[in-house]
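ok trying this again, last paste got cut off
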Amino acid sequence: MNDWTLSAFAGTINYQGDLKPTSFTFNHSNPAFSLVLRKPISRWFNWRLGASIGKVEGADRYNRDYLKIRNLSFFTDVQEMYTALEINLLDITTKKFTPYMYGAIGLFHFNPWTYDNNGKKTYLKPLSTEGQGLSQYPQQKPYKLIQSVLGFGVGAKYALSSCSNIGIEFSQRKTFIDYLDDVSSFYVDQETLRAAKGDKAVDLAWRGDEVPGGAPYPQDGYQRGTKSEMDWYYFFGLTFETKLSCLTGIFTNLKGAHGPYYTKCPRFY
């Protein structure tokens, strides 16, 4: 019961924010991977330490009709580390199966970027697209690329053997920033932005002029995003978990300590 385990997750990551107001969908998801160390506290509780990577994206061309004219898009890699308390809902020692849930706190790193008019990858934070860091807009503070996050997850796992199990898991992350997609509040004066950050900042702050019948750059103070709403991201996929003591046994076998077919492995439950 007290053995450490290592779990691998493979699945998808998805985002919710100003460029994708709907919650989890499979549309525009990308691959995601995680590694999780677990330490059983009892039959019902596990402590877990996880690290995850993936890439999220959003674009107004897939958005609601009234938002398509904005024509913004973004991508960002997400790397996170978290610690969590996991609760088993059934006794896996007798059922060999249990649903579970967990709550987590952690940190994640992001850095939004897009493609400019020439197809060049361009990071958005240095452009201050909403006036972040400009003296004319003191209320617009530059955002940090490492942020805290709260995690909530549910899943189910089934014991394949005394050493390993498989499972399925869905989790969501509540961030405390509205700039995962570099969109949050309002447009700033284009000439002020151009003087401070150059033409590219203006070009990527508003891209409605790139679509047929597009409108000119909005007036200073016109709404660009929904500042009161924080961004989210989601994971969904499959897990495979094994005891570290079993991995040690396999490595020992490979060295020939106990013969080629012998593995000393404690029961999983």
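PB: full thing came through this time. The two ends are 6 Å apart (CA to CA).
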